[in-house]
Amino acid sequence: MLFGENSITFSVAYFAIHAAGGIAVPIGADVSAESVQQLLEDCAPSLVLAENPRNASASAARPLPTPEQWAESDAALEPRCSVENPADLLFTTGTTGRRKGVLLSHGNIASAATNINAFVGTSADDIEVVPIPLSHSFGLGRLRCWARIGHSLVLEPGLRNPALLYKRLVDTKATGLAIVPAGVALLRRLVGARFAEVGTHLRYLELGSAAVSPEDRRFLIDTLPTTRICHHYGLTEASRAAFCELHRDWAKPNSIGRPAPNVEIRIADEQGRSLPAAEVGEILVRGGMVMQGYWQQAELTRGTLRDGWLRSGDEGWMDDDGYLYLRGRKGDLINVGGLKVAPHEIERRLCEIPGVREAACVGAPDPRGVLGQVVKAFIVADAEPSELEIAERLRRVLPEHELPRLFERVAALPKTESGKIKRAELRAREVR
């Protein structure tokens, strides 16, 4: 298990684990102590490494060596990994609220990197700025792409300071950038038309993990007229399954693109039968980057991987030109700036607060227009506590992106006869 932020030490440790024949389990620094304990129990790591062991929420964590210590070591290590061996175990939240461990082989991650580079067109001469966390599938994918090409990566500590990110792009004369739509929204507000200066040397931009708003799409197209703007669709289970290129595909603004190189996509009904163009069904994906399965969840694996195809859990359709359109998640996950949030854990925490009798959470449009979606909490509660008190209590036990930004008090939650919450009904209120 590997804790850390974007750094050289994190990157070296990630590949060292592979070379030693181990399975890397990257974990972000913002994961709660309770979640870390659950993950430790779930995967039982033989070694826990952290840049700052005190913040790793794991008493057995060992500090990562510094770059100087790596350089001082003269030990030679013959890689002990093969294509079929597991390489990464990436935990992602499932619709039931339980984190799913996605097991990827060396062949899976090599295939994904090959496919991405083939579409984006990264070359060995590129200088790419990466503010996406390496513990996240998107950021980790950019590190793997670097390993295939050998270009220069500039690792940034996230999107907390858009002004610093913009300055880094200008100062390094970056030719590449990996960013999520929330980051684009921040740059549009902070930098505006001045972002065109970056376009004089930015050759490509990979955008992903969430939908991009029409305003941000237009901003990118207008300010980066010669930049290859690649927006991907994918899952942790099947990295970058499809791509669109904003300039090329301007006439299909609602599409998430066509299958990535070496990837097949089809739309199927509940029985797995292919559907014709324009009919809505589940998106199925096949390719070398599709996962081996879910960690210690054989039944879930069998239900997700069938006859060589991965059932994505997303609903969508294809047009006559082979462009894919996403209708929504079959489950209940909320996409907050590219991070997947399950409502169940938030609801559990809400109901632990005195005075809150019931709660249900759904995704709602971000009032600020930055994150795409935010968490909205419908609560059945007494006169107390106030929304401020509820927010303060939740902040102690939930990461920032899982905190509800909107609240609505209701007399009762809509439920089925069996007592299940009608989430679709609550979601429908947010899109009227």
Describe the structure.
There is one protein chain. By secondary structure, this protein is α/β, with parallel strands linked by helices. The chain has 2 domains: 2-328, ANL, N-terminal domain (Rossmann fold, 3-Layer(aba) Sandwich), CATH 3.40.50; 334-430, GMP Synthetase, Chain A, domain 3 (2-Layer Sandwich), CATH 3.30.300. Helix content is 29%, strand content 28%. The protein is built from 13 helices and 24 strands. The protein has helices spanning 8-19, 33-43, 67-72, 106-120, 137-149, 162-171, 181-190, 196-199, 214-223, 298-304, 343-351, 387-395, 423-430; strands at residues 2-3, 26-27, 49-50, 62-63, 86-93, 99-105, 127-130, 152-155, 176-179, 204-207, 228-235, 238-245, 258-259, 263-268, 281-287, 293-294, 305-306, 309-318, 324-329, 334-336, 339-341, 356-365, 373-381, 404-409. The strands form 6 sheets. A 7-stranded mixed beta sheet has the order 8-7-9-10-11-12-13, with helices on both faces. Strands 14, 15, 17, 18 and 19 form a 5-stranded antiparallel beta sheet that branches. Strand 11 (228-235) and strand 12 (238-245) form a beta hairpin. The longest helix is centred in the first third of the chain and has 15 residues, at 106-120. The radius of gyration is 22 Å and the shape is globular. The mean pLDDT is 87.
